[in-house]
């Protein structure tokens, strides 16, 4: 009994930190409609800055001053980011906003590395609160009790701010209808900056409060962001109280999950999240986000099957690729195989994003499942490569069927966040389930069959798979199924009115996409001969997104080009600099701001001439959810 | 209407949603203290005209002079602060906010050239609202929401109010109340531009009228002239 009470208290203490991080994200989204991926990075920065300040400041007053000043300093950085970057992308599609803020996360990671070094840091204990209180005979850290009180206090303060001040009323009004608030004479620019600064302050405060409890590490950002996404999805985007309830639920599940399912407590969290989302797709206190017509005014060129000339070009490109073993050595061929695998991975994501309109932020899950599926087939069942290459895509398919069942119930940012959360859960399982996956040590000795073991043979195998995969996915775009999928994407309501089920159609697309990603993952396992949890990590998902973005979301050929350019660039970057994340992050941010249609998309726009440009006055496809009467 | 005394003057206004042009060379004016009706059927471009004035469409071209100053390039909030009050057709009451809070969002400093409104004055104008100060906007009837959205705009002390179909979907009794309120606003010296499909309602309160069809102005004149011109009425307004 006593143990449960103590676990419950620990859960509440964790809930407070989680709530601080999550409510900031939720408030920011409510007003600016940006899902701030960099939120975890600011949480981490809060902890690092607080660490440095509390090293210099003495005593209880110094400690608390250090925590608060750290949060304020980081909030100021957030304000600068809002003014310099976010203001440029408020009108961009949400996918680009997520990507840009992820780019910021990458940059922060390397900057933290530069400033504070690679090692974990252990902060000071809170003066006067470093002891423990005995509860039912068991010790509970005094600091935890403080956190337990702090969570509801912050909730109350935010409630007062939102309901008793003019600023708060304006924020709530803007959460409902930004344009109307502007039409009533409110300058949204400063409202947005203010809200973003407040949100970042809360995240940094949450991070800073962690230093007496846990070591300050480089993993804090991505580990908190996945949990935060789960919390805001369950609580309802934009709702502060919802974030609090969900934070308590998730933190308690974690606390008790460790007792029930040690090792893989995340599975429990996953199950609960699934149940909540099936019953309330918009979370506890959230509201459905207007979707409907996605891109009014976006002048997309209609897709057409290849002309004979294009077919000849494609055949020539394939032939050229097939001749590579005559030109390249074994290193070159292994890079070539890696590029081809990236092509399959990118095209599988492009299919679901462009044809399906499903912006996944967790495509690594299916790639990783394919890789682990193939590796485990070899290691456990001793299957040969040929069979393992079937197990991989099947594992990707299985994952897509399970996760997709939940994901396709949602759309837009909810969908993106949920896919990311699922991928992160898969990563955690691979990381924690050491008996099966080897944990951080991975699975070694996944080698191809003899006939495919030479670099040239494996390269040709990969090329054959890539060509078939790309052609099949491209064929699907122009099949009746592809038409249905595009109909659902372009106008859900009209498609459903002629008898096409959105959920079922998108579910199938999700499964197809997951299978192809799984195939890419399986090949990847054999290329590398080993597999580690990082194939499932967020950066892997982002790799796929950047490849697609780089090439332009709208075209299959774009993804192929994007995958080739991006893979070569990142291999070169890794060898050229220690600060690859800083460079990559900056490149992503630059790409989003400069080429909102991707490289191939932008080139095609130039080729299409002035007419196209005239049709795109803002330079970007604008997602405008105009109400039906808006066209009067 | 001479240009010198015009409160609002619009010339050669073209508006677009993405690549689609909605308004074609629209021009009209509203004089000081005048009530002008913009008439037309559903889809004629009335709401788009209002949104264009407020800078709420994708793209617009042309001249919009308010108080003899060009406001066509200003951001929406700046247009509102100059004294152009906008009451949207779909009301857009903040559903989660109470009546009092909705009014607070609209509040702007007093202006030299226009009547100054307070919640108390508005509650006197719309007694129904006074009884539900704490009620969330989402839990009000259509008529009550219409009163609230007008009151919210008046809290900004505008000198010209754009009323987009103020009678739409309201019960006859509420429509009468609405007409009285608009006349009371006129007595306060406000200029008013309202859009209507309902000629009867517009006739009660307007001095002049324009007819809009398929994004173009087809008629302009006094209400009396419009009454006399059955051909125009049949062609552009009859359902």
Automatic annotation (TrEMBL), chain A:
It comes from the Bacteria. Pfam families: BPD_transp_2. InterPro entries: ABC_transp_permease, BCAA_transport_permease, LivM-like. The chain crosses the membrane at residues 6-27, 34-51, 63-83, 95-116, 145-162, 190-212, 224-251, 258-279, 309-328, 387-406, 413-434, 457-477, 507-527, 547-575, 582-607. Its main location: membrane. It is found in: Cell membrane. It is a multi-pass membrane protein. Keywords: Amino-acid transport, Cell membrane, Membrane, Transmembrane, Transmembrane helix, Transport. PANTHER family: ABC TRANSPORTER ATP-BINDING PROTEIN, BRANCHED-CHAIN AMINO ACID TRANSPORT SYSTEM PERMEASE PROTEIN LIVH. Belongs to the binding-protein-dependent transport system permease family. LivHM subfamily. This is ABC transporter permease. It comes from Jiella sonneratiae.
UniProtKB/TrEMBL annotation, chain B:
PROSITE patterns: ABC_TRANSPORTER_1, ABC_TRANSPORTER_2. Keywords: Amino-acid transport, ATP-binding, Nucleotide-binding, Transport. The keyword Transport applies. The keyword Nucleotide-binding applies. Residues 8-239 form the ABC transporter domain. SUPFAM superfamilies: P-loop containing nucleoside triphosphate hydrolases (SSF52540). GO terms for molecular function: ATP binding. Belongs to the ABC transporter superfamily. This is ABC transporter ATP-binding protein. It comes from Jiella sonneratiae.
């Amino acid at each position: 009994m006593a143990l449960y009470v103590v676990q419950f208290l620990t859960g509440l203490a964790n809930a407070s930190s989680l709530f601080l991080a999550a409510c900031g994200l939720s408030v920011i989204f409510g007003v600016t409609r940006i899902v701030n991926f960099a939120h975890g990075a600011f949480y981490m920065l809060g902890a690092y800055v607080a660490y440095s300040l509390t090293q210099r400041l003495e005593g209880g007053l110094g400690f608390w001053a250090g925590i608060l000043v750290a949060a304020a300093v980081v909030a100021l950085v957030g304000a600068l980011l809002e003014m310099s970057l976010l203001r440029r992308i408020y009108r961009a599609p949400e996918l680009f906003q997520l990507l840009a803020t992820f780019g910021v996360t990458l940059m922060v990671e390397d900057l933290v590395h530069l400033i504070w070094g690679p090692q974990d840091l252990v902060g000071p204990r809170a003066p006067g609160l470093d002891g423990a209180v005995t509860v039912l005979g068991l010790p509970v850290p005094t600091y935890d009790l403080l956190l337990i009180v702090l969570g509801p206090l912050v909730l109350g303060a935010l409630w007062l701010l939102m309901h008793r001040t003019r600023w708060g009323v304006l924020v709530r009004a803007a959460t409902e209808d930004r344009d109307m608030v502007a039409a009533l004479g409110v300058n949204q620019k400063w409202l947005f900056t203010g809200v973003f600064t407040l949100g970042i302050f809360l995240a940094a405060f949450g991070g800073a409060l962690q230093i007496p409890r846990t070591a300050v590490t480089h993993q804090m950002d991505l580990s908190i962001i996945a949990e935060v996404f789960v919390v805001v999805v369950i609580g309802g985007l934009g709702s502060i109280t919802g974030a609090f309830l969900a934070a308590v639920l998730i933190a308690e599940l974690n606390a008790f999950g460790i007792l029930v399912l040690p090792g893989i407590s995340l599975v429990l969290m996953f199950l609960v999240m699934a149940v909540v989302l099936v019953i309330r797709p918009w979370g506890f206190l959230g509201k459905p986000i207007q979707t409907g017509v996605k891109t009014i005014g976006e002048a997309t060129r209609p897709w057409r099957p290849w002309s004979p000339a294009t077919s000849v070009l494609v055949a020539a490109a394939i032939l050229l690729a097939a001749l590579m073993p005559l030109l390249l050595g074994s290193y070159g061929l292994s890079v070539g195989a890696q590029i081809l695998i990236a092509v399959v991975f990118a095209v599988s994501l492009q299919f679901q994003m462009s044809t399906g309109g499903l912006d996944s932020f967790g495509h690594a899950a299916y790639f990783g499942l394919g890789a682990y599926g193939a590796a485990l087939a070899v290691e456990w069942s001793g299957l040969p490569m040929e069979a393992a290459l079937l197990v991989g895509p099947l594992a990707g398919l299985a994952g897509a069927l399970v996760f997709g069942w939940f994901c396709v119930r949602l759309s837009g940012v909810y969908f993106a966040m949920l896919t990311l959360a699922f991928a992160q859960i898969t990563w955690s399982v691979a990381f924690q389930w050491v008996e099966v996956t080897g944990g951080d040590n991975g699975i070694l000795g996944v080698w191809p069959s003899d006939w495919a073991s030479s670099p040239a043979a494996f390269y040709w195998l990969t090329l054959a798979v890539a060509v078939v995969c790309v052609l099949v996915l491209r064929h699907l775009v122009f099949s009746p199924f592809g038409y249905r999928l595009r109909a659902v994407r372009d106008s859900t309501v009209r498609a459903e009115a002629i008898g096409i089920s959105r959920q079922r159609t998108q579910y199938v697309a999700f499964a197809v996409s997951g299978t192809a990603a799984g195939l890419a993952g399986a090949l990847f396992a054999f290329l590398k001969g080993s597999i580690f949890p990082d194939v499932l990590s967020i950066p892997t998902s982002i790799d796929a997104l950047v490849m697609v973005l780089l090439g332009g979301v709208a075209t299959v050929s774009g993804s192929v080009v994007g995958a080739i350019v991006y893979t070569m660039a990142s291999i070169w970057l890794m060898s050229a600099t220690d600060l690859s994340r800083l460079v990559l992050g900056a490149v992503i941010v630059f790409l989003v701001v400069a080429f909102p249609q991707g490289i191939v998309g932008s080139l095609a726009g130039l080729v299409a001439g002035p007419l196209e440009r005239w049709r795109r006055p803002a330079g970007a496809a604008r997602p405008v959810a105009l109400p039906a009467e808006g066209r009067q | 209407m001479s240009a010198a005394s015009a409160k609002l003057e619009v010339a050669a206004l073209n508006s677009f949603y993405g690549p689609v042009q909605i308004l074609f060379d629209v021009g009209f004016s509203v004089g000081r203290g005048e009530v002008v009706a913009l008439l037309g059927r559903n889809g004629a471009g009335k709401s788009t005209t209002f949104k264009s004035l407020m800078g709420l469409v994708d793209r617009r071209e042309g001249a919009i002079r308010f108080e003899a100053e060009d406001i066509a390039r200003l951001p929406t909030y700046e247009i509102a602060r100059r004294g152009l009050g906008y009451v949207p057709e779909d009301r857009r009451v903040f559903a989660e906010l109470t009546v009092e809070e909705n009014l607070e969002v609209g509040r702007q400093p007093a202006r030299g050239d226009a009547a100054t409104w307070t919640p108390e004055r508005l509650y006197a104008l719309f007694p129904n609202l006074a009884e539900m100060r704490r009620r969330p906007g989402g839990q009000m009837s259509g008529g009550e929401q219409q009163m609230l959205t007008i009151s919210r705009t008046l809290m900004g002390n505008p000198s010209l109010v754009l009323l987009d179909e103020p009678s739409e979907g309201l019960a006859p009794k509420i429509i009468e109340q609405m007409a009285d309120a608009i006349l009371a606003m006129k007595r306060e010296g406000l200029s008013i531009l309202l859009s209507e499909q309902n000629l009867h309602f517009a006739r009660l309160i307007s001095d002049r009228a324009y007819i809009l069809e398929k994004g173009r102005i087809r008629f302009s004149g006094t209400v009396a002239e419009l009454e006399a011109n059955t051909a125009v009425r049949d062609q552009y307004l009859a359902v």
